[in-house]
Design goal:
Length: 187
C-alpha cells in the first residue's frame, strides 16, 4: 500500500465522527451527527509603546470558542448540560440552577474535497457555555438540529487544540477518538 497522496492545500469539505470523552471517564461517547463545526480563537493583543506610539504588536491566543450544530445523543446532551434525575423519581430529568455540565475532550474527523486523507482534530478541555435551547416546529421537512457552544481552555501543556493527519500519525490515530491523551503526542 502506497503513501497517501494529498494536495498541499487542505480545503475543508466534511466534518464527522464527533466524540466526547468526559473527565473522569474511561471511554469516549459518540457526540451525535455533525452538521456544522465552527471554531474561533480568542486573541489578546500585546502592544509595545515608545513615547506613546505603537512600535510592536503581537497577538496571543488566550482561548477558543467552538460551535457544534447537529443531532446529539440524549445521554451525552444530559451530561454536557448537567441534566439528571438527582432527587426525583426515575424518569424525571431536571435542568436548573444546580445543573453543572461536565468538562470533556471533543474530537472530530475532517476531510478535504477529494477525501484523500483524514485530519484528526481535538480540543482536550471543552465546557459548554450556551444554555439548553430547543426549537420544535410541527410540519417541518427537516428535523431541527441543536446548537452547542463550548469554551476551550488550555490543557496541562498549555495547548487549546491538537490536529494531525491519519497518514502521519501512525498508531496515535487509532485511539484519537476513543481515548485522546495529549501527553502521548509529545516527542
Amino acid at each position: 500500500m502506497g503513501a497517501t497522496q494529498r494536495d498541499s492545500q487542505f480545503s475543508y469539505f466534511k466534518v464527522t465522527n464527533a466524540h466526547i470523552l468526559f473527565e473522569g471517564e474511561a471511554a469516549s461517547k459518540k457526540l451525535g451527527c455533525t452538521g456544522e463545526l465552527e471554531v474561533e480563537s480568542e486573541i489578546k493583543t500585546i502592544v509595545k509603546k515608545c513615547e506613546g506610539v505603537d512600535k510592536e504588536k503581537r497577538a496571543k491566543v488566550v482561548g477558543q470558542k467552538l460551535k457544534f450544530v447537529g443531532h446529539i445523543e440524549r445521554d451525552v446532551l444530559n451530561k454536557i448540560f448537567g441534566i439528571d434525575t438527582t432527587g426525583f423519581k426515575p424518569g424525571v430529568y431536571t435542568y436548573g440552577d444546580s445543573s453543572l455540565g461536565k468538562v470533556g475532550c471533543l474530537t472530530f474527523s475532517a476531510y478535504d474535497l477529494m477525501e484523500t486523507d483524514e485530519e484528526l482534530l481535538a480540543w482536550p478541555k471543552a465546557a459548554v457555555t450556551s444554555g439548553l435551547t430547543l426549537s420544535i416546529k410541527n410540519g417541518e421537512e427537516e428535523v431541527a438540529e441543536i446548537e452547542l457552544e463550548f469554551s476551550i481552555t488550555a490543557d496541562e501543556m498549555g495547548k487549546f487544540m491538537y490536529r494531525g493527519f491519519r497518514s502521519e500519525l501512525g498508531q496515535l490515530a487509532d485511539t484519537w477518538h476513543s481515548k485522546f491523551d495529549a501527553s502521548k503526542l509529545k516527542a
